[in-house]
Design brief:
Elements: E1 4-11, E2 19-26, E3 31-35, H1 42-49, E4 57-62, E5 65-66, H2 72-78, E6 79-82, H3 94-99, H4 114-126, H5 142-155, E7 160-164, H6 172-189, E8 192-196, H7 200-206, E9 209-214, E10 217-223, H8 224-227, H9 230-237, E11 241-245, E12 252-256
Parallel strand pairs: 3-8, 3-9, 6-7, 7-8
Antiparallel strand pairs: 1-2, 1-4, 4-5, 9-10, 11-12
Amino acid sequence: MTRLETQGAVIGYGGPPIVHGVDVEIPDGQITAIIGPNGCGKSTLLRALVRLLTPSDGTVLLDGEDIHRVPTREVARRVGLLPQSPLAPAGITVKELVARGRTPHQKVLRPWSAADETAVMSALHSTGLTSIQDAVVDELSGGQRQRAWIAMALAQDTPLMILDEPTTYLDIAHQYEVMDLLHRLNDRQERTIVMVVHDLHQAARYAHHVIAMSEGRVAASGPAAEVLTAETVGDVFGLEVRVIPDPVTGTPVIVPAHAPGGRADT
């Protein structure tokens, strides 16, 4: 059974729907990338998957149960969220931030335990942050900051991790640092990872499964090599492309079909 899925989900923000009746299954133990042009409903779908939005029709199922019938604390023990461009409280250290991931596991009469400490230290180790655990988050590089937020999600100790554009505003070196980290977490810990990404090369290189969205609907879904074709990319993004193999991984690389200056202004 798929742990996380939608069935006919219609999702919006109180006005006209942004996402129209989508059926999505998130493969267990894999990395899923959600792609599509701006405004197509990627982040809206993601917010519904973590119960931040309630479908006006259809359902989001977590372990076969309507996610809105699952207690909030229990959802937080099963699904971790890293939102787009999160902000850390002023002066908070890396370890203090990561420790906040243990909140769903806290109890009134047991605010902290050896298990909590072990989870935090394990998350710091997995993300390579042990040596700077006492550093102030605001003083870190972009890549280090993003790793700290991922460590917080790791400390939450959920089998599912949801990330909204985890490489936004990072330079190319830090982007691949973060993507390599997510790949290791999936490979070594078998965590199911779902992420919204804009870079199609990164989606192809790191994701096992790709969901392509267009105008609030799923245009295609499946293995990256089957979704990231010239035809599908053209239909979804309105851009004529060529698809060639990555010389390192063999995964698809998307290349615009025109030379610079070759398209007329629109």
